[in-house]
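Person: I have long wanted to understand how a fold can be written as tokens. Underneath my words sits a plain record pairing an amino acid chain with its backbone structure tokens. Those tokens are not coordinates but codes from a learned vocabulary of shapes. I should like you to check that the lines agree and flag anything odd. The protein I mean follows directly.
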Amino acid sequence: MCREFKPVLTKRDFTERYAAGEFGNHSPTWHTLNDFMLSLDGKWDEKLYHLRNRVAGGETYYNIAGLEAEFLWKKQSNQTDFYVSEMAPTEKTIIQGELMRSTNGLYLHYSMEPRPMREALSLRSYHIYGIMADSILRHYMDPQSYEWTMELLNRYPDHVVEFSTYSIEWGTVPGYNTVWWEVRKY
């Protein structure tokens, strides 16, 4: 029997399911300010963080220290719209983008700029289809990352899958060079 997966209809729905690990390897993430502060255990400046928004297209803050993340989070008028993730190793980015199935086969909108995805896609991005899109994914993703990406497309038809692939293994699941940032219905 084939398991059916519920479509992702809102960003808030996505973030709850993301936290539960439904979409695979991702950045270490905290969904409440209290959980984030407890995780720091007084070590405010050892890592950089990304204050993320549960509202599609909402404001986001990259490359901030723990103390700054706490300050910015507390400053928000609706704190429940935010969550924080450990900042990805953007300097080790080899490819990132948005992937979906289209009438022309796979469609990939991507960048190879070592920057946060929003910046990278607006600075320099490319569009490819079909076997070329498949080939570039196979080339840069490790085999398990490629297979999981295809599984996400199978589980969530008519969805876009956002990902970043790095030159190193990174994220919450050992053995993957790719993290999946978002799965959303188009």
